[in-house]
Amino acid sequence: MSGSNNPYGSSYGSTMSGSASYGGKPAAASPAAAGGGDLIKETTTAAFPRDVIEESKNQPVLVDFWAPWCGPCRQLTPIIERVVKEAGGRVKLVKMNIDDHPEYAGQMGIQSIPAVVAFVNGRPADGFMGAIPESQIRQFIDKIAGAAPGDDQAEAIAETLAQAGELLAARDASGAASLYAAVLQAEPENIAALAGMAQCMILAGQHDRALGLIDSLDDEKKADPAILAVRKSLEQYEEARKLGDPRALEHELSLNPDNHEARMKLAKIASVQGNRQDAADHLLYIMKKDRTYEDDGARRELLNFFEVWGPKEPATAYARRKMSSILFS
């Protein structure tokens, strides 16, 4: 994606910057690797030694233990197959239906599926269970097979995303958006950049545009935690818009500091306005005074804030420390 075809950079000026220059493109995968070729296959009990044990002496082999009735298996399948194809032959994927071929799963003590085990040099080396996100599958393959050619670009993208996150935390929507747009020029499907761009739109008051962006994503991306956090942020903005005049709420608190309803509303408004420590302090005050209010509603709302703010947000760390002292005092 480049130039005028990039929908993520049009409202924020330049879509590239010096800090987001990635140099040459990664080397292309071979035709067989690009199309899947023999990178992905089903195996049987009889073929397992050849397809997995022997083949893993040439390059790592991921064995996906699955069953037709397993919902998470169906969720994982298209993701892991796509990542293996994009890995360009660094790993192979062998799928084993444990209903038809239970022996190896039993020998390896696999009790829950989907389960993926990486074989290296004829032996199990590592693995994971469950339908984990695509980003974690990529990290797993990099761990097993080593970094891909072109990872100089991956490192530059990671650095750019970190810079953009810092600008976003500083509420510099324009600066952050230009970096996220640069990443999306190089990797149009980068989830972190898509989520970051949507957060920039929210910060710039373009809520409808942010909603349009995340609604345009496929179901897999919509289920990513970063995109779910954006949607929750939009929901909080919509809720806060209906909570009334913050000055009137502050007046109510001046008359009665223990008006928890007014304080809860002020916390929600402060959060969407970016006054996150103030938002946390309001909820922490309620927690100290009355844990029974709305069935510990202040603590639950604070956890909702954490999902939107993210773990690196200073207000998150501040509020977690304060909350722990209240909960365990």
From TrEMBL:
> Where is region (Disordered) located?
1-34
- The answer to keyword Electron transport applying to this record is yes
Keywords noted in UniProt: Disulfide bond, Electron transport, Redox-active center, Transport
Keyword Disulfide bond on this protein?
Answer: yes
Pfam families tied to this protein: Thioredoxin, TPR_19, TPR_20
Question: Any idea where the Thioredoxin domain is?
Answer: 21-146
Q: Which CDD domains does the entry link to?
A: ybbN
Q: Where is the composition biased (Low complexity)?
A: 1-33
The record, for InterPro entries, names: Thioredoxin (IPR005746), Thioredoxin-like_sf (IPR036249), Thioredoxin_CS (IPR017937), Thioredoxin_domain (IPR013766), TPR-like_helical_dom_sf (IPR011990)
| Classification via Gene3D superfamilies | Glutaredoxin, Tetratricopeptide repeat domain
Q: Which NCBIfam families match?
A: thioredoxin (TIGR01068)
Protein family according to the UniProt entry: Belongs to the thioredoxin family.
The name under which this protein is listed is Thioredoxin
